[in-house]
Design brief:
The protein is an alpha+beta fold. The chain folds into two domains: 40 residues, YefM-like fold; 48 residues. The protein is 62% helix and 15% strand. It contains three helices and three strands, in the order E-H-E-E-H-H. Strand 2 and strand 3 form a beta hairpin. The longest helix has 31 residues. The chain is elongated.
Length: 96
């Protein structure tokens, strides 16, 4: 659901309206809380936050799988590196 101007709430109004804001968030309206006119924090339904965290973990797993597949492709293609070569490369990178 796209944010509207009603979903942007100054921090000084949050204390007085927290219960109402929480109910709106539970109904699907995320809130951006501002401080000194700038984005400060977001108020998000806990279930949606759990969903976001699951998506993030899945993304990390996909990246790891892609890296593993690339490594297997390298091995299959004969693109290998000895331990000595790896150490030398690591030392060069650390010096930068």
């Amino acid at each position: 659901m796209p944010l509207t101007s009603e979903d942007i709430v100054p921090l000084n109004q949050v204390r007085a309206r927290l219960t109402d804001l929480a109910e709106e968030v539970r109904a699907g309206h995320e809130k951006i809380i501002t401080r000194n006119g700038r984005s400060y924090v977001a108020l998000v339904d806990a279930r949606r936050l759990d969903y976001y965290h699951r998506l993030e973990r899945e993304h990390v797993h996909l990246i790891l799988l892609e890296e593993a597949a690339r490594g297997l492709d390298d091995v299959s293609a004969g693109r290998l590196m000895s331990v000595a070569e790896l150490r030398a490369k690591y030392r060069r990178v650390r010096k930068r």
